[in-house]
Amino acid sequence: MMQNGHIRGHAVLLKGRSGIGKFIFARFLAKSLLCKNPAADHMACGDCVSCNWFERQTHPDFVIISPETMLSDPANAVQSDNEGLPPNESKIKKKPGQHISISQIRELDDFVYLSGHQSGYKIVLICPAEAMNGAASNALLKKLEEPPEQVLFILVSHQPHHLLPTIKSRCQQIAMPVPDTEAAMEWLRQSSATNDMDKLRALLALSGYSPLAALALAESHEAHRKFIDSICRVDQFDPLAAAEALHDLDLVMTVEWLQKWCYDLLSCRISGVIRFHPDDEAHIRTLCQRAAPQSVLAYLRFLNTRQALARHPLQAKLFLEELFIRYAGLFTPALSGLT
Ligand SMILES: [Zn+2]
User: Kindly report the CA angle at 222 between 221 and 225, in degrees rounded to 5?
Assistant: First the structure.
């Protein structure tokens, strides 16, 4: 990608599964390119004035464009893949909503075309690039078609198939690999507060083998374990009590827990494979025989529609009660016929 410390072209697209560190890599790439005194391997020195600006988030030649909701809601770290985006990057152009708007791209004009750079690159990091709506994409495309001098666009994308082909074709595309399990485990061990390898292995599985997502899950691990223990025992499961116990937690996260659990129920019944909860294999193998696969599938679809609502529920407890009553209904044939 880099030749003699320079990037070919004016735009780079880093694409790959969420939670594998694309954003952190993109930031490090920017820091290295802006560094005044890079090492022989082109890595940032960490000491120069540029690296200092960068770490204090005041670098005049670096801008991050992101949807505001991703920055303000840490629960989105797993679901929406902000990949550890720091909540208070000072140079971030904030806009409400989950999209990157055309005004955010237009506001780049001064930075891209006018402001004097320090000598060397000016860098715009857009994450995730698929959050750009149509108008924003077209505005960016114009900039990519007539690339300004010494400006580098770094696009980070978890879903590159949602990007305009015309944007992709103007980027040097780099597929970011998922780290292998051992490397991911070692990184998790170093990054998290625990040395409990069994727990870390469970978190890694639950995250879909994305180490950054696994680290985020570590914080909610206790609550998650309790939740799984309660929904395992469907015969004692009390939907109203569960809603009462969980309504203070992040609802998006709770819906995701249910999605992953039900995914495993369905997957185990159909193919025998358990992806997210290998430690709960015995429970899943028993439970999945008790619910009709088409009912579980319908429930998963229902959870998908609820995932969007979970950000702004009118009544958290009622919201969860409906989810849990339907869940319990999966295992009582007389009820599941009604849903
Ligand atoms: Zn430096």
Answer: 85
Same domain, 245 and 149: no
What separation in Å is there between the alpha carbon of 5 and the centre of ligand 1?
13
* Residues 157 and 249 reside in one and the same domain: no
Task: Indicate if 148 and 82 belong to the same structural domain.
Answer: yes
Kindly give the residue spans of alpha helices, DSSP state H, lying in the chain. 22-34, 49-55, 68-72, 76-79, 102-106, 108-109, 134-145, 165-168, 181-191, 197-206, 211-219, 221-232, 239-246, 251-271, 281-287, 293-309, 316-329, 333-336
Distance between Cα 122 and ligand 1 center (Å)? 15
Give the Å distance between the CA of 125 and the centre of ligand 1. 19
Segment 210-226 mean pLDDT:
85
pLDDT digits (tens, 9 = 90+) for 56-81: 888 989 999 998 655 443 333 333 33
Residue numbers of the domain that contains 45: 2-175
Whole-number Å distance, alpha carbon 6 to ligand 1 midpoint, is 15
Q: Measure CA 214 to chain center.
A: 11
Total domain count, the chain: 2
Provide the whole-model pTM.
0.62
How far does residue 31's CA lie from ligand 1's centre (Å)? 8
In this structure, the answer to whether residues 28 and 171 fall within a common structural domain is yes
Quote the ligand 1 centre to 92 CA distance (angstroms).
21
| Ligand 1 center to 308 CA (angstroms) | 42
- Residue 185 covered by a domain: no
Rg of the Cα atoms in the chain: 23
Residues 146 and 227 in one domain: no
Per-residue pLDDT tens digits for 225-269:
999 999 999 999 999 999 999 888 889 889 999 999 999 999 999
- 14 and 145 belong to one structural domain: yes
Examine the domain organization and report whether 29 and 127 are in the same domain: yes
The verdict on 168 and 286 lying in the same domain is no
